[in-house]
């Protein structure tokens, strides 16, 4: 077993789509970042890479590389999945918490779970997504941005 933790945060920005967990969420602003700024997927990638001992997303997808400008984070997640698969590791389960004062994310949780599970080729029962506010405290509470934290458990693939 290998355990990893990931964390990411992005500030809100005008004239951008809000992408979370691979979904475009209707909202009047998106998140600022070099790629699509999907904090959920970025935190998942860091958790997977950490558990596998493969560094972090900045090492694999540097934010000063124009190749990743406006990149689809779900495609990058699939790359990370191939890295861990190459090392005979598979996702056993993951727990995701999204910290956002706004927008309300409850209507999108089930679809996020499905999107993430499909990208990682795992059952959606192995993915838990929850959203919380910060009770109007800190940058999240002031509606300046969104953060996500992920814990993942990787297991060695079983020989069939």
From TrEMBL:
Its gene is ispF
UniProt cofactor note: Binds 1 divalent metal cation per subunit.
Describe, as the record does, how this protein assembles with itself and its partners.
Homotrimer.
Give one Pfam family. YgbB
For this protein, the record's InterPro entries field holds: MECDP_synthase, MECDP_synthase_CS, MECDP_synthase_sf
Which reaction equation describes what this protein catalyses?
4-CDP-2-C-methyl-D-erythritol 2-phosphate = 2-C-methyl-D-erythritol 2,4-cyclic diphosphate + CMP
Identify which top EC class this enzyme belongs to: lyase
Q: Which residues bind a divalent metal cation?
A: 8, 10, 42
**What pathway or pathways are given for this protein in its record?**
Isoprenoid biosynthesis; isopentenyl diphosphate biosynthesis via DXP pathway; isopentenyl diphosphate from 1-deoxy-D-xylulose 5-phosphate: step 4/6
Q: Which family does it belong to?
A: Belongs to the IspF family.
2-C-methyl-D-erythritol 2,4-cyclodiphosphate synthase domain boundaries: 1-154
Citing just one GO molecular function, the answer is:
metal ion binding
Residues holding 4-CDP-2-C-methyl-D-erythritol 2-phosphate: 8-10, 34-35, 56-58, 61-65, 132-135, 139, 142
Q: Which Gene3D superfamilies match?
A: 2-C-methyl-D-erythritol 2,4-cyclodiphosphate synthase (3.30.1330.50)
Q: What is the E.C. number?
A: 4.6.1.12
Chain's role: Involved in the biosynthesis of isopentenyl diphosphate (IPP) and dimethylallyl diphosphate (DMAPP), two major building blocks of isoprenoid compounds. Catalyzes the conversion of 4-diphosphocytidyl-2-C-methyl-D-erythritol 2-phosphate (CDP-ME2P) to 2-C-methyl-D-erythritol 2,4-cyclodiphosphate (ME-CPP) with a corresponding release of cytidine 5-monophosphate (CMP).
Kindly list the cofactors needed: a divalent metal cation
Q: Which UniProt keywords apply?
A: Isoprene biosynthesis, Lyase, Metal-binding
Could you tell me what this protein is called?
Answer: 2-C-methyl-D-erythritol 2,4-cyclodiphosphate synthase
């Amino acid at each position: 077993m290998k355990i990893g933790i990931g964390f990411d945060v992005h500030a809100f920005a005008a004239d951008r789509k809000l992408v979370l967990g691979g979904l475009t969420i209707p909202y009047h602003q998106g998140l600022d970042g070099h790629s699509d700024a999907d904090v959920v997927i970025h935190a998942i990638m860091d958790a997977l890479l950490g558990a596998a001992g493969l560094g972090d997303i900045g090492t694999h997808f540097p934010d000063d590389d124009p190749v990743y400008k406006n990149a689809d984070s779900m495609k990058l997640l699939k790359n990370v999945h191939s890295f861990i698969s190459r090392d005979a590791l598979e996702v056993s389960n993951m727990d995701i918490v999204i910290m956002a004062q706004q927008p309300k994310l409850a209507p999108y949780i089930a679809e996020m779970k499905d999107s993430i599970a499909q990208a990682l080729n795992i059952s959606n029962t192995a993915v838990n997504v929850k959203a919380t506010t910060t009770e109007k405290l800190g940058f999240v509470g002031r509606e300046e941005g969104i953060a996500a934290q992920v814990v993942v458990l990787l297991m060695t693939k079983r020989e069939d």
